[in-house]
Design a protein that fits this description.
Number of helices: 10
CATH class: Mainly Alpha
GO molecular function, one term: L-ornithine transmembrane transporter activity
InterPro entries: MCP_dom_sf (IPR023395), MCP_transmembrane (IPR018108), Mitochondrial_Carrier (IPR050567)
Shape: globular
Structural class: mainly alpha
CATH superfamily: Mitochondrial carrier domain
Keywords: Membrane, Mitochondrion, Repeat, Transmembrane, Transmembrane helix, Transport
Family: Belongs to the mitochondrial carrier (TC 2.A.29) family.
Largest sheet: none
Distance between the termini: 9 Å
Pfam families: Mito_carr (PF00153)
Radius of gyration: 20 Å
CATH topology: Mitochondrial carrier fold
Number of domains: 1
Helix content: over 70%
Strand content: under 5%
Length: 297
């Protein structure tokens, strides 16, 4: 089996593990990010992450925490296969000779390159996921009269293609998606390699056990969101914005309006669930990837 196929297979397994562990946290993150600013004197729909979980369970049951999972599940194979395959190919280009470990800086470059590649696939997937996750919060807002209700991932895609500019509508939010994925993956893979080398006491990390891989993967995932979270908030509000009556003209406008109306803390709505998700989800992803990759040779 060639290296590309091994990375494709291992990335798929890792992505599935990441999605199963992390999706409920992601649902709460998006709900908090996309809830409308309440009128003066009125409390927000969700008082915080725990309240969002309680309201979701009360209104939709446990299935509500996995709403929007169909779109990423359908593409998780392609997404993580692309991420780890592009990273693997860039490693091969940067490696001086076969088997030589890469430096942390070289892994940062590999992560950034992989981030560019996955952004193209991530943007429409994220748009569909965010629309489904956010619609219950948006339905109770002042714009409920124009809020669109979706029956599922395919229904979101159909409505966007039909009434929001065709294929271009599915790539709404591409700029903030790139601004999230490129630096985020650069930091993530850099931290992952740095932690592995620290735990191994040198550049040869092949002997690390599963516990060490879990620690490295968890810290790497946390570093991704810590470094790019405000960009993710901008991406989410852009992607759930109403097409006919938009609140934001673009990413910069969204950033300015969020800060103007909510302060800097508005850029960190849902940060707790995102961080709570990132550590176990990415630990599961990297562990599943490494174990699968090792088993394939």
């Amino acid at each position: 089996m060639g290296d590309v196929l091994k990375d494709l297979t291992s990335g798929t397994v890792g992505g599935a593990a990441q999605l199963i562990v992390g999706h409920p946290f992601d649902t709460i993150k998006v709900k908090l990010q996309s809830q409308p600013v309440p009128p003066p004197g009125q409390p927000p729909k969700y008082a915080g992450a725990i309240d969002a979980v309680k309201q979701t369970l009360a209104a939709e049951g446990p299935r509500g925490l996995y709403k929007g999972m169909g779109a990423p599940l359908a593409t998780v194979a392609a997404f993580n296969a692309v991420l780890f395959s592009v990273r693997g190919q860039m490693e091969a280009l940067l490696r001086s000779e076969p088997g030589v470990p890469l430096t942390v800086n070289q892994q940062i470059i590999c992560g950034a390159g992989a981030g560019v590649a996955v952004s193209i696939l991530a943007c429409p997937t994220e748009l569909i996921k965010c629309r489904l996750q956010a619609q219950s919060a948006l339905a109770d807002s002042a714009s409920a009269g124009v809020a669109v209700k979706y029956g599922g991932p395919l229904d979101v895609a159909r409505q966007v293609l039909r009434s929001e500019g065709g294929v271009r509508g599915l790539f709404k939010g591409l700029v903030p998606t790139l601004a999230r994925e490129v630096p985020g993956n650069a930091v993530m893979f850099g931290v992952y390699e740095a932690v592995k080398q620290y735990l191994a006491g040198g550049t040869d990390t092949s002997g690390l056990g599963r516990g060490s891989l879990i620690v490295a993967g968890g810290l790497a995932g946390g570093s991704f969101w810590f470094s790019v979270y405000p960009t993710d908030v901008v991406k989410s509000v852009i992607q759930v914005d109403d097409y006919k009556n938009p609140k934001f003209s673009g990413s910069i406008d969204a950033f300015r309006k969020i800060v103007a109306s909510e302060g800097v803390k508005g850029l960190y709505k849902g940060f707790g669930p995102a961080m709570a998700r990132s550590v176990p989800a990415n630990a599961a992803c990297f562990l599943a990837y490494e174990v699968t990759r090792s088993s394939l040779g």
